[in-house]
Amino acid sequence: MQKAIDEFVRTLISRGLSEHTITAYKKDLLQLQEFLTKYFEDGSVKVDQITRLFLRDFLRHLSMNDRNNRTLARKATTMKNFFQFCEKNEYISKNPASNLHIPKFEKKLPKYFSEKEMEELLNIPDLSSKFGIRNRAILELIYSSGLRISEIADCKMGQIDLNEKLIKVIGKGNKERIIPISSKAKIAIRNYEKTREQFKSRFSDESFFLSKSGRKLSSNEIREILSRYLVLVARTKGYSPHSIRHSFATHLLARGADLRAVQEMLGHSNLSTTEIYTHLTLKDLKKVYEQAHPRSDKED
């Protein structure tokens, strides 16, 4: 099974999936492999001997250990994708996950900041420091264009056109999209461009955002940087660097942006993925309606 997992991961990398997604797949499969060792005498899991009952037992084990339906659904999807790969590459003759039930779960509404909170967040970095200038540019660019953390990390020098106020992004599945940049993001990026020379070293390449050593700033490093700022603004738990992307989509829709345009900017394959943000904006509209309409008194 370990050989099959390694091959599967290499395929995911070649498809251009994000580092975060690949890590999640690998973690799920290694957890499954560890669980399945009890079924094999020498502890070495044979992928062609795994049955549907083994997989159901794994999901039952997770459920008994207080894993929610969302987690179970993700792990079931991981198994389906993995065993489809194994069947296609003839590692197995029969797919044990073909009829595996994926638990249904309620879509969790993403956390997002209010416009006022986003203003606070964007103003936190200290612009007297080269790190503050860089971090402000990262924050402005995510909020301006709704980029994923991995897309910020992978951004190259030639992808940003400040004259046209556009950024070219290579997203999931190596899909390219072009997104507008706000005027404030343009100013922040221009300031960072002047400071970028101070980060450069012999390790530097064409990566736009550099670490203190001059290397490409990784996704994990960006998450760490942003998380330190988020705790200063977030009023409750559950916020993450991805909440800035959520805020981008929510604020655009709240101000009347077209849903399909937001879908394109976010790089969502399916409109249904973007539609979750309409629930957030409708919730805000309902609140305004209840406060303002003379005949909107709540029922006793």
Give a verbal description of the structure.
This protein has helices at 2-14, 19-36, 52-64, 69-88, 115-122, 130-145, 149-153, 183-195, 219-230, 242-254, 259-266, 271-292, and strands at residues 160-161, 166-170, 176-180. It is mainly alpha-helical. Helix 1 packs antiparallel against helix 2 (19-36) and helix 10 crosses helix 12 (271-292). A three-stranded antiparallel sheet has the order 1-2-3, with no helix packed on it. It has twelve helices and three strands. A hairpin with a 5-residue loop joins strand 2 (166-170) and strand 3. It has two domains: 2-88, DNA polymerase, domain 1 (Orthogonal Bundle), CATH 1.10.150; 115-289, Intergrase catalytic core (hpI Integrase, Chain A). The protein is 54% helix and 4% strand. The chain is globular. The longest helix is centred in the last third of the chain and has 22 residues, at 271-292. It starts with a helix and ends in an 8-residue tail after the last helix.
In short:
With 300 residues, the protein is mainly alpha-helical. The protein has helices at 2-14, 19-36, 52-64, 69-88, 115-122, 130-145, 149-153, 183-195, 219-230, 242-254, 259-266, 271-292; strands at 160-161, 166-170, 176-180.
**At the first level of CATH, what is the class of the largest domain?**
Mainly Alpha
Number of domains: 2
**Uncertain runs with pLDDT below 50, 5 residues or more?**
none
Report the order of strands and helices. HHHHHHHEEEHHHHH
